[in-house]
Write a structure and sequence with these properties.
Elements (H helix, E strand, L loop, with lengths): L26 E8 L4 E4 L4 E8 L2 E5 L2 E5 L4 E4 L5 E5 L4 E8 L10 H11 L3 E4 L4 H19 L4 H17 L2 H4 L5 H20 L6 H6 L5 H12 L3 H19 L4 H7 L5 H12 L3 H11 L2
Antiparallel strand pairs: 1-8, 2-7, 3-6, 3-8, 4-5, 4-7, 6-9
Helix pairs in contact: 1-3, 2-3, 5-7, 8-9, 8-11, 9-10
Length: 296
Amino acid sequence: MLEKNQPFSPTGSQREQPPHGTPSFPVEIFELSIPASTVPWHWHEDWEYVLCTRNRVKCSTAQGEIVLDPGYGAFLGPRVIHEITAEDGSCGIRSLVFHPHFLGSEESLIWQKYVAPVQECGAIKLSPDIPWQWDCMHFFCVAWHAMNQQGAGYEIETRQALENAVYRLSLQTEFRKNSLSEKARRNTQRLEQMLQFIQQNYGEELTVSQIADSAAISESECLRCFRNSLHTVPSRYLRDFRLQKAETLLLSTQETSANIGAACGFSDPAYFTKLFREVKGCTPLEYRKRHNATRM
């Protein structure tokens, strides 16, 4: 039987754990279909490049939304709280995530001259119609394909491509304007603390007061942070997070619906089934059967 707050796969978590890649090679790639694979609000220390490959994708951050048509990309700096959703039913993305230390240590000239300026930035849309942005997208794609194929010397090819992309990003004053303000940094830090608290305690009864206390702020300030940055309220966010966890378990385990609901904070099995049907359009077990059938 599942225990409350049992660790899950990175899909559906706030702060992605464990770190992407390995300590000696901190790079990882993903190819996802959304909403079949959900990418809810989360953050990480790594940098991320997202390319829309099918239909339209919306990359929401605490500072605003980036809408991507096929062939367009987005670059997300460290600790940018973000969510990736489909604009019209479903979409496809490719994602490349890497830690900036992959390019050099903080004492190195490479870091100080090229990495540090990008490290201070937030998020930016990349268009194939703008030459310098197309160059960035090209090198990110070279790195993605090198990782995907893993031919001889792919580690060197990946690093060289990422160095070329970051070099071009570091030169752009337009990109540097996306640096987070002090107020935005403070709000982001508070959100990180509250989301981390929810992640660690979603299986228990939680109140807005407890969520606010985790960031040492008032309930009204907690509500303001969620509304202004995530366009929702803490109770709705907690509900959706629990449902996302339940989705993951339905597809990755054979546990009963009641056990999964209890592990995700829904103590009443009937309420869990009713809420799941309202949000997803089917019962938990129907959801499992449908997705298992598509994978056969």
